[in-house]
Amino acid sequence: MEPLVIIYAISSALFWIGCGFDAVSSVGQLEKTPWYQNSQKRFSMGKYVIIHVIAYAVVTVVVKLFDFDEVTTVSACISLVGMAVWSYLQSRKNNALKKAQAR
User: Fold this and answer.
1) Residues near 12 by Cβ (< 8 Å), separated by ≥ 6?
2) What pTM did the predictor assign?
3) What's the distance, Cα to Cα, between the start and end of the chain in Å?
4) At what angle are helices 45-65 and 3-26 packed, to 10 degrees?
5) Which of 61, 56, 57, 87 lies closest to 72, judged by CA?
6) What's phi and psi for 58, nearest 5 deg?
7) Residue-wise pLDDT tens digits, 63-73
8) Other Cβ atoms closer than 10 A to 56
9) Model confidence at 59, in pLDDT bands (50, 70, 90)?
């Protein structure tokens, strides 16, 4: 396996782990982002998963179109890891909100 493919696979795993943390921490919460809201303005797991699957698919298709070109793959990896970090930070924020509401 090429090193860039391995790096992309690791970045992908980090992306999905971050999304998982964010999604689990959001369950039952009021949602501010309209794209992720259900009819009661709460977090919709289905919409969240669909949006992230589409985003990941677009990134993967672009990387494959450029045949794992160095610049494209590194850019995609940076985007995926950036999103993973953002998702993890969101999950920490959600968990802090849940703890504050429980008091």
Assistant:
1) 56, 60, 80
2) 0.90
3) 51
4) 170
5) 61
6) -60, -45
7) 999 988 999 99
8) 17
9) very high
The tokens 């930070």 sit on which residue? Answer: 89
State whether the Cα torsion 28-32-36-42 is positive or negative.
Answer: positive
Nearest to 11 by CA among 49, 58, 60, 51: 60
| Helices within the chain (DSSP H only) | 3-26, 45-65, 70-102
Structure tokens at 58: 């677009």
Task: Classify residue 70 by burial, with Cβ atoms within 10 Å: 0-12, 13-18, 19+.
Answer: exposed
**Local confidence band at 2 (pLDDT 50, 70, 90 cut-offs):** confident
Q: Could you tell me the two tokens for 53? A: 């699957």
**Sequence letter at residue 101:** Q
For residue 74, CA distances in Å to 3, 4, 15, 88 come to: 11, 8, 14, 21
Instruction: Decide if 46 contacts 55 (C-beta within 8 A).
Output: no
